[in-house]
Amino acid sequence: MQSEFIDRIYECSVVPELWPTVLDEIAGMTESRGGLLFSARKALHWTASDTVREVFSDYVNDGWFTRCSRRVCLMNASEPAFFTEQDFWSEDQMGADPIYRDFFRPRGLGWSAGTALRVPSGDNIVFSIERALERGPIERDYVETLNALRPHLARSALISARLGLQRAEGAADVLTALRLPALLLDDTGRVVEANEMIQAMADQIGFRAGNRILLTDRAANETLFAMLGAIGTPDGAQSCSLPLRNGLAQPVGVLHMLPVRRTACDIFGHGYALLVLTPVGTDKSPSLDLMRSLFDLTRSEARVAQGLATGKTAEEIATEGDVAITTVRSQIRRVLEKTGCGRQAEVTALLAGLALGTA
């Protein structure tokens, strides 16, 4: 995926009026008519490509949003991925569903690929790409194209959702509106600006000479600076999400780093990356939904991670899931990579008790 387009996705996080154009381009990648973004917490906010804006204005204003079976299926989906109608219904079921029969099909639509994000901060986000009815279902290759973009869309939408899809006026405005601990960093890791909520994280997030950030979680600190340096390279990471642990190796939150790009620089000035912390609480067993949303785990990876968190061995996980031990070990390796852990014991300590916080 071209880094320039990824930059534009992150630009949308604080310049949400750019979302319609980006959604339109994503739709073009999949031979579709347009795209849309919904976010809901205490209020519903949405934006869409100009090509489908009128349709979804009716969708919201005429009450179809609250009755939409597609939205419910996406929110209950078991993997962090885009889904099409064929993943949920037969042709006969679609024909009998009022949302398709009475709303989408009369307007020349009826095929889509969508994904839902349950963010630990309480925001529920839905992306959807809409294709013309006459064109037919969205093909699997195109769904994979969307899945490659999904982690970037998710991180950018987290910020947009917190801002209520409103353009920020400045860095201080963004950090305040997020209502989450947040920092703005330059390319050396120096803190350009921080909000008041970061003060409550003093045991985990500190500062050293030159006002440079210092995470007390050594592994997270090393990863953060490696990713910060990689942002500026042609093939480097565009963003990252990594767990933050306290001195007892217990999770206190997940750090999301987003690059500051293009016109977002007008808002953030000398800022190079935005660092946002999604706090978590503690409980005996982490939910599958939470692990998927934090670390982009597949359903099978999340089940393996949950097994590790409850103290099960790889052999026990394999027996319970009726899968080969080699498969489970491969999934454990992917869980280690995605959670930023080096050893199985470390991922067990991290995930044991991960639960939704109150942010």
Question: Topology of this structure?
Answer:
Layout: H1 3-11, H2 19-29, E1 34-40, E2 44-48, H3 50-61, H4 64-67, H5 69-75, E3 83-84, H6 91-96, H7 98-104, E4 109-118, E5 124-132, H8 140-162, H9 171-178, E6 182-185, E7 191-194, E8 205-208, E9 212-215, H10 218-230, E10 240-245, E11 251-259, H11 264-268, E12 273-282, H12 288-295, H13 299-309, H14 314-321, H15 325-339, H16 344-351, E13 354-356
Antiparallel strand pairs: 1-2, 1-5, 3-4, 4-5, 6-7, 6-12, 8-9, 10-11, 11-12, 12-13
Helix pairs in contact: 1-8, 12-13, 13-15, 13-16, 14-15
Tell me the total number of β-strands. 13
Distance between the termini: 33 Å
- Which strand-content bin applies to the residues? 15-25%
Backbone CA Rg:
21 Å
What does the average pLDDT come to? Answer: 84
Sheet having the most strands: 6 strands, antiparallel
Structural class: alpha+beta
Walkthrough of the structure:
The protein has 359 residues and is of the alpha+beta class. Helix content is 43%, strand content 21%. The protein contains 16 helices and 13 strands. The strands form three sheets. Strands 6, 7, 10, 11, 12 and 13 form a six-stranded antiparallel beta sheet that branches. Strands 2-1-5-4-3 form a five-stranded antiparallel beta sheet. Strand 8 (205-208) and strand 9 (212-215) form a beta hairpin. Helix 14 packs across helix 15. The protein is globular. The two termini are 33 Å apart.
